[in-house]
Amino acid sequence: MYGLNVLVEKALIKIEKDNGIWMHDLIEDMGKEIVRQESPEIGKRSRLWLYENVREVLEENTGTDKIKAIVLRSRARNSQKIQLNGGSFTNLKNLQIFQDCVWMLDGKSVDYLSNQLRVLDWRCCSLQSLPTNFNPKKLGMLRMSGPCTTPLGLKLKEMPHLKSIRLWRCDGLTRIPDLSGLTCLKNLDLSGCEDLVEVDPSVGRLDKLVYLRLKYCKKLQRFPKVINLKSLETLNLSYWPLEFFPEIEGDMRSLKHLNLSRTAIKELPCSVGNLTGLESLDLDGCYNLTNVPSSIFYGLQRLEDLDLQYCSKLVTFPTKSESLPPPVFSTNLTSRLKVNLRECSELKEISEFPREIDSLYVSGCESLKRISKLSNILEGKDSKMFGELSFTSCLRLRDNLVLAMKSTKKLMSEADKLTALLRLFFSCAKSEEFQVEFPASAPIPNWFTCRQDVKLDWDEDVNSEEHEFCIELPQNFNWDNKGLALCIQSYPGRLTHFVYINGIKFDVRLSAGSHKVWVHYIPFVTVRKRLSESGMPQPDMFRVKFRLEADYLSRGEPPFEASWGVHLIEDLEGEGRR
User: For a pLDDT cut of 70, what percent of the chain falls above it?
Assistant: First the structure.
């Protein structure tokens, strides 16, 4: 360990976060030269890493017990696969590390593999089965993919050092056996094992398991009904017909990421609320899910990302319960909650959530009529906007907001609707930054401080457009209680918008789909801070540049039209907002 510390101090190696080791080219070259000098005969060297050397040893059976490691991580273009035979590994009695990361081995069977192996990493393994006499009691990592059906037929209870099992797309693997003897197991990944039917209940009680991934296991039917995995941090059960999530037993506060996307799950047990360390909950595309119990969110103080998009049967969104006491959040928790409800076509209302939502995405929720926070802003009960809100294609919600602000019974034009919504959002312009995206087909109104219409004509081979607005600042400018509202109105088309302030990129927006308007409000103090962080001096003028780029051109299509603008918002606390 002393030697490693010396090398770290001299910046010749670096210990990465995942415990990998980066080394300077000089150290690597020196190590390789030491190995070359071990013997003129390739089969008597301790480590092999060149494709030509590995091919010679495995095809001609010239290896010896001197070889401790074989690692294939690169190959020349058009290299032929190495053809294995029964005796390819027979003489490699002391082989401890074997890695084929470039899928270069071919052969149906081998007679022997070393029982001294610590690492067996064989991508796209062509073997039909492992040797019957293979019993690697010192194995620490098992990583394989391919048709081999026997990796978990090994004597697992005799492998106390095994920490990681990754078996990807192992055709024919139907069952995960009893793993209770693997007391050191931290990583279990069986993604893409399409023939897998059953997972032994012991998997739900592995105390040291940190990472469990069973993605794309399309035939999986039996999974532990109860799990108690106190060290687990990531659980991914996505893309297989899971109907019921297991009950949470005991302390699982270490779990940070739970992915149940594209499953057939119908409901979540209330015990999910005991996952107090959860940071992300992914339920994307759970087409059988109709509701999510509110009670579980009272314990999820650290939740940052809730994904419920494409839950086509979701009819109710979790709301604050009157029968439960309000949640008490620790003052040292700084996580902001992002909620994605895109394309939840049956969702009609988003009431008050147990947690404050910072970012809300509901585009494509065509049945949505009401968001309680926006209603509260209209009624003067709230004045803080979401940090980010997107409700494009939500025409019912838009029209209901406009109707609530309407002072006349006359039909409103698209331009009047846009003005009403802009004034609603600008009324929330205080000391915090926010972004809003909503449906609108009218151009940016003329009352903006600066505005311009934009037109791209495909037939003129013009695929970009830009314009810069200048806003001069008077001397002794008061930076408080003022801000900039950046605004882009666009029609359907695949375009990318860029926004720069004094040469510094502030925004990149992809425009696709329906007619919409995007607004980004930034307090002046925030603009000044970002410019300062980029090494810019305190400005006496704001130069706001918009740039539009088309991803592709198609001759004969009508010109693309849009508008963009900047509005100066002052007197944020008074009645004189502009």
Answer: 91
Which of 446, 457, 428 is closest to 519 using CA atoms? 428
| 546 within domain boundaries | yes
pLDDT at 32 over 80: yes
- Measure CA of the first residue to CA of the last residue in the chain; give whole Å: 66
Give the integer Cα–Cα distance in Å for 152 and 100. Answer: 19
Q: Helix crossing, 414-426 with 395-405: angle to 10°?
A: 80
Three-point CA angle 269, 274, 280, nearest 5°: 85
d(CA 132, CA 150): 10
pLDDT tens, position by position, 232-274: 999 999 998 888 889 998 889 999 999 999 999 988 888 888 8
pLDDT per position as a tens digit, 79-96: 889 999 999 999 999 999
Q: Which CATH number does the domain housing residue 438 bear?
A: 2.60.120.380
Strands 141-146 and 119-122: parallel
49-88: burial string, b at 16+ Cβ within 10 Å, e else = eebebbbbbbeebebbebbbbbbbeebeeeeeebebbeeb
Q: Per-residue DSSP letters for 361-388? A: E-TT-TT--EEHHHHHHHTTS--PPPSE
pLDDT band at 575; cut points 50, 70, 90: very low
Alpha helices, DSSP H, located in 316-451: 372-378, 395-405, 414-426
- Which positions ≥6 away from 396 have C-beta within 8 Å? 366, 367, 368, 369
- Tell me the C-alpha distance between 208 and 425, whole Å: 49
512-546 core/surface letters (b: 16 or more CB in 10 A; e: else):
eeebbbbbbbbbbebbeeebeeeeeeebeebebbb
Q: Over 80: is that where the pLDDT of 574 sits?
A: no
124 or 39, higher pLDDT? 39
Q: How far apart are CA 479 and CA 419, in angstroms?
A: 26
For residue 29, tell me if it sits in a domain. yes
**159-196 tens-digit pLDDT:** 889 999 999 888 888 888 889 889 999 999 999 998 89
Give the pair of three-digit tokens for residue 507.
Answer: 């925004």
The set of long-range contacts for 350-353, using a CB threshold of 8 Å and a minimum separation of 24, is 350/317, 351/317, 351/319, 351/320, 352/319, 352/320, 353/297, 353/317, 353/318, 353/319, 353/320
* Helices and strands counted in the chain (H then E): 7, 34
Number of domains, the chain: 2
Say how far apart CA 437 and CA 342 lie, in whole Å. Answer: 13
Q: Does residue 565 lie in a domain region?
A: yes
Residue 359 lies in a domain: no
* Residue 31 belongs to domain spanning: 1-37
Q: Could you give the CA distance from residue 154 to residue 151 in angstroms, rounded to a whole number?
A: 6
